[in-house]
Amino acid sequence: FLRRTRINKYLRTLEGIRRKYELVKINRAITVALNGDGNSNPALNVDAAGTAWSFSDFDNLIAEGNDYDITPTVFIADKAEMLNIVAMRYPQANLQLTPQQVAMFEGRGYRTPNGDAIMFAPSGSVLSGSRKLLGWVPQLGLERVIEEGSIIQEATRYIEDQTQAIVISEVESYAKPEKFGTWTLTRQAA
């Protein structure tokens, strides 16, 4: 297959495998950040005041984090919540932009009213349909863990067609160093 396939198909296949594996890793990380790593450490939760997102919800999240001397600075949500949050940046009834709305337009990508980064969660993640915005403190929220001695490399040579098959496997997951490293802001059902 490798010797007779045009290189662009081969590279596209490898890129597709890499992309799928990255989504699996992101979904694992989101699951651990939300539910914990098995050590009674799920994300701390702050309930939003109403059925729609408001600027004060983000202020309440910062106030709650103050009890732990931390502030989540990276956020992720499913498509529905992202669209609801991002909609807050547009002025209503021809009013001028507020400072929070201006902060949501600064920099590249999407931003919270505080100017922090916010990203789309992959479809099918545990955040899908949860009405939650997941935030974390990068230094405290998640840690990638690879089991020591689990990386195994096996190689097989095929002399007949001059190819070599290499298989590398490892045991990896995520851990939460601190319970208060991840937070959720949960919007009420409409």
Describe this structure in words.
There is one protein chain. With 190 residues, this protein is an alpha+beta fold. Helix content is 29%, strand content 24%. The protein contains four helices and ten strands. It has helices at 7-35, 55-66, 79-86, 99-105; strands at 44-47, 74-77, 110-111, 117-120, 132-136, 143-146, 152-158, 163-169, 172-175, 182-186. The strands form three sheets. A six-stranded mixed beta sheet has the order 1-10-5-2-4-3, sandwiched between helices. It has a two-stranded antiparallel sheet with strand order 6-9. Strands 7-8 form a two-stranded antiparallel sheet. It starts with 6 loop residues before the first helix and ends with a strand. The model has no long low-confidence stretch (mean pLDDT 84).
Which oligomeric state applies? single chain
Helix/sheet category: alpha+beta
Strand tally: 10
**Helix and strand run:** HEHEHHEEEEEEEE
Which sequence of strands runs across the widest sheet?
1-10-5-2-4-3
Q: Shape, please?
A: elongated
End-to-end separation in angstroms reads 54 Å
How many helices in DSSP terms?
A: 4
Strand content: 15-25%
What gyration radius follows from the Cα positions, in whole Å?
Answer: 21 Å
Helix content: 25-40%
Poorly predicted sequence stretches spanning 5 or more consecutive residues: none
**How would a crystallographer describe the biggest sheet?**
6 strands, mixed
Mean pLDDT: 84
